[in-house]
Structures are given as C-alpha cells and as structure tokens.
C-alpha cells in the first residue's frame, strides 16, 4: 500500500466488529511501533496490550474516549531514562508517544485493522488496573479492531491555510 494513500485514507474507527485480532497481527503492529522515530533513540516506549474481552470492558469504564467495544487496546507508556523529569522532557515523551501511535495506526490500517488514538482516559485508574509502576507514565491508548463503520473523512484545512513560505503569513501556494 502506498504511504501517501495509507496516510490519507486511514480514519479513526470507533465502531468495531466482534472479530478478535490475532496475536501474530498484534506482533506485527508492535514491530512497526518499535521502528518509530524517537528522541535520542531512547526506545522509551512500553506497550501494554489489553486483549482479554473482560479487561477491555473494564478499561472502557475509565476510558471515555473509547466508544463501543474494540478487540484490543494498546496503552502507550513511556519509561523515562532519567529519574528526575523536567517539563521539557515530558513534552519529548509526549512526542515519542504520539509518533509511535501514528506508526501503530498506520500499520494497523494497512492490515485492514481500524484504530483510534485516545487521550481521554483516567490515567490513575488505568495505572491501578494494569499495574503500571509509578515511574512509568501512560500517555495514550489506541483502540484496535476490525472496522464496523466507514467514516466520512473529517475536513482538513487546506495546505495554504496551514503552511507558509519563508515567513509566517506568507502563504504557501500549492
Ligand atoms: C492525541 C490524540 C488524542 C485523541 N483523543 C481521542 C479521544 O479521546 N477520543 C476519540 O474518539 N478520538 C480521539 N482522537 C482521534 C481524533 O478525534 C481524530 O484523529 C480526528 O477527529 C481526525 O479524524 P481522523 O483520525 O479520522 O482523520 C485523538 C487523536 C489524537 C491524535
């Protein structure tokens, strides 16, 4: 599948069929994740794959951003390389978590698996539920499953509304 088309055609999927995702497919997704660009090549991501229907259901109680019932949820966490974390480091962690989530979403789409990146979850509850140690932070959750909907692409701003040439305000002409 062509990368540009994969990027443009992927949609956030919030309604899934009951079909489970095989662990070998989850493994392919995790393999794509670990090849994401990441700050200093620290490889700080830690992924918790939640696939038991009971635990997925329980997680949903603390994850208002996840609608309906996904086949699996991957919680994207970061394990810092240093003990003291400055605010700037947190932003880098967020960037690492976001970029790896994009890898997960795109490879899942290329495999026919729908996904939705979700920031809306109760981190304290998820930490307790999944036994996440104190020094590891969950940043995002990604619901995964076979799509039971084909969302209309939500609108995007045009290139010339978001890009400039040489200085801010000088619109990029496409
Ligand atoms: C950081 C981030 C957080 C998001 N959080 C949620 C969420 O909590 N619930 C949800 O339904 N979608 C969430 N989304 C999905 C966005 O709503 C979605 O990407 C956006 O509407 C564009 O739609 P598209 O992904 O189909 O292009 C999130 C996306 C990102 C990147």
Plain-language structure description:
With 174 residues, this protein is α+β, with helices and mostly antiparallel strands. The protein has a single domain, classed as NADH Oxidase (3-Layer(aba) Sandwich). It is built from 6 helices and 4 strands; from the N terminus they run ααβαβαβαβα. Helix 2 packs across helix 4 (87-110). The longest helix is centred in the middle third of the chain and has 24 residues, at 87-110. It starts with a helix and ends in a 12-residue tail after the last helix.
Major sheet details: 4 strands, antiparallel
How many beta strands in the DSSP annotation? 4
Give the names of the bound compounds. Answer: flavin mononucleotide
The succession of helices and strands, N to C, reads HHEHEHEHEH
Structure in a nutshell:
This protein is α+β, with helices and mostly antiparallel strands and 174 residues long. The chain is built from six helices and four strands. A four-stranded antiparallel β-sheet has the order 1-2-4-3, sandwiched between helices.
